[in-house]
């Protein structure tokens, strides 16, 4: 006969009832999840309202034959992809596209390199010299574009320009030389102007990134025997890589869409058909020739190129976010 007492069956565990604080915490989490959407929504509405109609009109017009008659009320003729087909078959378009891509890559690359060097210089010099550099760049950056271009056109003017006057005094035969007549010198002048106007933004942005690098890290690298170039290459540049990538992307986009500088230089003595970039090419087709359908097609292709250039960086941001 067994002497052990019978063991009572175990009671089934009941799920714990939610505490009094669970309800409010879930509500707080839900509000927090909606907060970014609420904050972004006003900006999204403004962007859609400001850009939705122009972009929609461009897309619609790119599928139409829209010329001067349509400006006076005639109904546009739907041509489908006819504008795009004619554009892609035009050899001049490919020349302008290649010229624009080359110009924007050169301008963006030079801008980032010079801006990086100026940012490093501002980090190394004393307070007084740094303030002089920063104020000088801010003044150059804040100068109105047309006012700055007026000064630049005066500097390179072939009749009374300062550049020709200085070169003549130095013994060169530069009197009466038109720097804007030849495409090579035209784009050299345009490249200098575009880079000069863009460097302040890049330099100040990179300098802001440099100020976030710990001095202890650089001092430790110097104690380990790393030279200045090695510290820049293996420590500074990897740490500010996100800043470099965003300013390079922005510069490529801005320089691809450059218009005012090229147009004013063309008006000052350049040959438009030989110096067109995408911006002035669209202007010439639309306002100059009255073919707004073809000009809209070029605009949409330009938008597609810009999105394609930006897509790599956007994907990188999404990967980092995930």
TrEMBL record:
The Pro residues compositionally biased stretches are 1-18
Is Signal one of the keywords? no
User: Which residue ranges does the record annotate as region Disordered?
Assistant: 1-26
Keyword list (alphabetical) reads: Cell membrane, Membrane, Transmembrane, Transmembrane helix, Transport
Q: Where in the cell is it found?
A: Cell membrane
Xref: Pfam families: BPD_transp_1 (PF00528)
Annotated membrane-spanning segments are 37-60, 93-119, 131-155, 186-210, 231-254, 292-314
Question: Which residues belong to any copy of the ABC transmembrane type-1 domain?
Answer: 97-313
The record gives the membrane topology as: Multi-pass membrane protein
Q: Where is the major localization of this protein?
A: membrane
Gene Ontology biological-process entries: transmembrane transport
Report the superkingdom from the record. Bacteria
> Got a GO cellular component term for this one?
plasma membrane
Q: Which InterPro entries match?
A: MetI-like, MetI-like_sf, UgpAE/MalFG_permease
- Homology family: Belongs to the binding-protein-dependent transport system permease family.
Instruction: Please identify the protein, giving its name as recorded.
Output: Carbohydrate ABC transporter membrane protein 1 (CUT1 family)
* Taxonomic path: Bacteria, Bacillati, Actinomycetota, Actinomycetes, Micrococcales
């Amino acid at each position: 006969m067994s002497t052990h007492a019978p063991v009572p069956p175990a009671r089934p565990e009941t799920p714990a009832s939610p505490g009094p604080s669970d309800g409010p915490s879930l509500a707080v989490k839900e509000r927090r999840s909606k907060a970014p959407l609420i904050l972004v929504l006003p900006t999204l509405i403004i962007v859609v309202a400001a850009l939705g109609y122009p972009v929609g009109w461009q897309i619609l017009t790119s599928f139409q034959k829209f010329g001067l008659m349509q400006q006076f009320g005639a109904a546009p003729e739907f041509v489908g992809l006819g504008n795009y087909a004619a554009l892609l078959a035009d050899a001049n378009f490919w020349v302008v596209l290649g010229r624009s891509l080359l110009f924007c890559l050169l301008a963006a690359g030079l801008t980032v390199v010079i801006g990086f060097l100026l940012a490093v210089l501002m980090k190394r010099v004393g307070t007084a010299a740094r303030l002089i550099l920063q104020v000088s760049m801010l003044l150059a950056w804040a100068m109105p574009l047309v006012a700055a271009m007026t000064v630049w056109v005066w500097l390179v003017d072939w009749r009374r320009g300062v550049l020709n006057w200085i070169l003549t005094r130095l013994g060169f035969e530069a009197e009466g030389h038109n720097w804007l007549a030849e495409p090579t010198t035209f784009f050299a002048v345009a490249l200098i102007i575009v880079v000069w106007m863009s460097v302040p933004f890049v330099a100040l942005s990179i300098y802001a990134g440099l100020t976030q690098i710990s001095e202890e890290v650089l001092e430790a690298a110097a104690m380990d025997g790393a030279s200045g170039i090695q510290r820049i290459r293996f420590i500074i540049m990897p740490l500010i890589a996100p800043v470099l990538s965003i300013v390079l992307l922005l510069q490529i986009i801005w320089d691809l869409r450059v218009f005012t500088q090229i147009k004013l230089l063309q008006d000052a003595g350049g040959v438009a058909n030989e110096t067109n970039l995408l911006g002035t090419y669209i202007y010439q087709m639309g306002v100059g020739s009255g073919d707004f359908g073809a000009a809209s097609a070029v605009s949409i292709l330009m938008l597609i190129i810009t999105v394609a250039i930006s897509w790599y960086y956007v994907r990188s941001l999404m990967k980092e976010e995930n």
